[in-house]
Design a protein that fits this description.
By secondary structure, the chain is an alpha+beta fold. The chain is 33% helix and 42% strand. The mean pLDDT is 88. It contains 5 helices and 7 strands, in the order βααββββββααα. Strands 1-7-6-5-4-3-2 form a 7-stranded antiparallel beta sheet. The radius of gyration is 15 Å and the shape is globular.
């Protein structure tokens, strides 16, 4: 099931890309993600893998991520495996006031129950996913717009 959300951030596209493509920063703006660790490959480049803790519904499990696309400063994508498998893509477009970020997630089912939920409640689940993506992008926006230039690039 696919869903997406977009937001405008008052920072240059290069700075936004540098921040979102540093996978360790996911813990600062993606709900439930913590303890991100680089596992293999060149950090923040295609093929690099990471793990993190992911907490949802009071339960913490491990997620694994692999960067599938790294095209500075406009496109960054990864796949995630674990309790909530997904394919995610962030598209960044320069605007007169900064950067437009569009986050698109294709969520997969991790079992029969989730597959049934996606099938029966598809419209509701898609709206819930879009709302969650929007909340996460709002956190990203607040973080980047309140940071100094050196903090954004870090």
């Amino acid at each position: 099931m696919q869903s997406s959300a977009s937001i405008d951030i008052a920072q240059p596209v290069q700075d936004v890309y540098a921040y979102i493509s540093s996978v360790e920063n996911m813990a600062n703006w993606v709900d439930g993600v913590s303890n991100v660790q680089h596992v293999s490959g060149e950090p923040d480049e295609e093929g690099a893998t990471y793990t993190s803790d992911y907490t949802y519904g009071g339960r913490t499990t491990e997620m694994t991520y692999e960067i599938t696309t790294a095209e500075p400063p406009n496109r960054f994508a990864m796949v995630g495996t674990g309790p909530f498998p997904f394919e995610g893509e962030l598209l960044l477009t320069a605007t007169p006031s900064g950067t437009r970020v569009t986050n698109t997630i294709e969520a997969g089912a991790d079992g029969r129950f989730t597959k049934a939920m996606f099938t029966v409640f598809r419209p509701v689940m898609r709206r819930m996913m879009a709302r969650q993506l929007g909340k996460e992008l709002a956190i990203l926006k607040r973080h980047l717009e309140s940071a100094s230039p050196s903090e954004v690039a870090a």
